[in-house]
Amino acid sequence: MEIERIEVAAPGPGDLLIRQHAASVNFHDIYVRSGSYRTLDLPGIPGLEAVGTVETVGADVTDFKPGDRIAYIARNYGGYSRLRVVSATLAVPVPAGIDDAIAAAWFLKGLTAQALVDEVEPVRPGMAVLVQAAGGGVGQLVARMAQLRGAKVIGTAGSPEKAAIARVAGCDEVIHYRDEDVASRVLAFTNGAGVAAAYDAVGGDTFEGSLASLGVKGHLVHYGQASGPIPPFDLSRLGAKSAKVSRPFLWPYISTRETLLAAAESLFVSIAAGELPLSLGGRFDLAEASKAHVALEARAAGPFVLDC
């Protein structure tokens, strides 16, 4: 990845010209850059989300004015930039008191975690859940949000550092998935019952352990593939426990202006209340985006942001 100077057009009707302050670095960006996701024509500008200040509004924009601080997620990418045009329908106000870098680093992750525990497999008081990579970005939030909703949370981690993060995030038990048999530990912790839900963003390395950890009618929520995609498997294997597997993406859960604003407001309320673990793993200048990718791929404790 190299930084280039380009001409930025004036905002058209319904658009905002944004002076960006911070952009988040996500595994999705790595999947795009590596070709694992073929959703951005290369060469192109990666980056799904950022926080910045409105410089100019296009015609027909009534919800924002110059000087407003906003966050956005754009499926057409382009977040790794200092100045850009986005549709006003994608922008949400960032409340005063929430730091730019914190908002940028945790906006997409926070909305994803909320969707996972409230809609994909709603967490109920007393249920047992498994969170793979609970020391990672989204994993921390899934663990904490599940705990706040009354679940017993079992987390996994690949290093002592990540295990410590997982415990701070709210895991009742942490399993070192590189050295221990995850399913055996889960079954021991749940007295043989297994978990009602397994939230797994690791993919290839952890899928079998997540599947074996499910209880009767359990749900394996496979929402990422940090270690690579899962191989094909026989669906009839789910029959023994009447289990299910899903592969959710965030977009359908924030597909309307109303659902996006409601989800963002809920997340920012939790952030302002201090309910969520929101540390930063590192900050890089925009020109050092490649270094941020290297750190994330090396499983360094994140999240990481680019200062624009």
TrEMBL record:
The keyword Oxidoreductase applies. SUPFAM superfamilies: GroES-like, NAD(P)-binding Rossmann-fold domains. The keyword Oxidoreductase applies. GO terms for molecular function: mRNA 3'-UTR AU-rich region binding; NADPH binding; quinone reductase (NADPH) activity. Keywords: NADP, Oxidoreductase. CDD domains: QOR2 (cd05286). GO terms for cellular component: cytosol. Pfam families: ADH_N (PF08240), ADH_zinc_N (PF00107). Residues 1-306 form the Enoyl reductase (ER) domain. InterPro entries: ADH-like_C (IPR013149), ADH-like_N (IPR013154), ER (IPR020843), GroES-like_sf (IPR011032), NAD(P)-bd_dom_sf (IPR036291), QOR-like (IPR047618). PANTHER family: QUINONE OXIDOREDUCTASE PIG3-RELATED, QUINONE OXIDOREDUCTASE-RELATED. This is Alcohol dehydrogenase. It comes from Novosphingobium fuchskuhlense.
